[in-house]
């Protein structure tokens, strides 16, 4: 009888632990599902509309690089303005990892963001394929190396343009700029457009592994695909660490600077 009581108690403890674990998972999902869903939708729109701007027009000549770059810049602007207050509108695994390095996201939420972004990219490009004719959809928006450059040169370009993107992202996150976030969507959107114009002729200007994943998946073209993961992650992570530990001021330092500046202004007026 004592043995049976012991077994029942052990089973009860196991059930209690399972219930607590499930309740924690449910609570976590209830807290974060809107953010995760926003990341999926924003990345979906990035691929759908950004790549739509790259589709050729029959009989109408246009600058593919310029049109696609401006298109991506504007949809990034739109997404940040729409979803920025919900999830941060990362739309990019590299930005998400940088946010985790800065302490803005937990590891669990960062992983959920990454999955949502990759799923959104695949769904977004798939919708473009479904909405386009076969001749238009084939190969549109693939990020491929320019054959005139070596693979190391292509990798280097992806590292540096992603680094530039993360510099402005980190500056927007910098607490010293917390009063200047209203124009963040414009700043980052224009930066994306400019970097795309610069890098597209060489690498396709990915700066975003999810952005390259969608077209590669639907076209089953994985040529040098590793470059569009390694390059952005190396450039993004190094920049996030550099900015955080070299230029980022702590809150107490910011307040000290503000007090010093204020006292100097008062003395000047006197």
TrEMBL record:
Pfam family, one: MIP
Major site of localization recorded for this protein: membrane
Keyword field: Membrane, Transmembrane, Transmembrane helix, Transport
A molecular function (GO) term: channel activity
Protein localization: Membrane
Protein family per UniProt: Belongs to the MIP/aquaporin (TC 1.A.8) family.
Designated name of the protein: Aquaporin
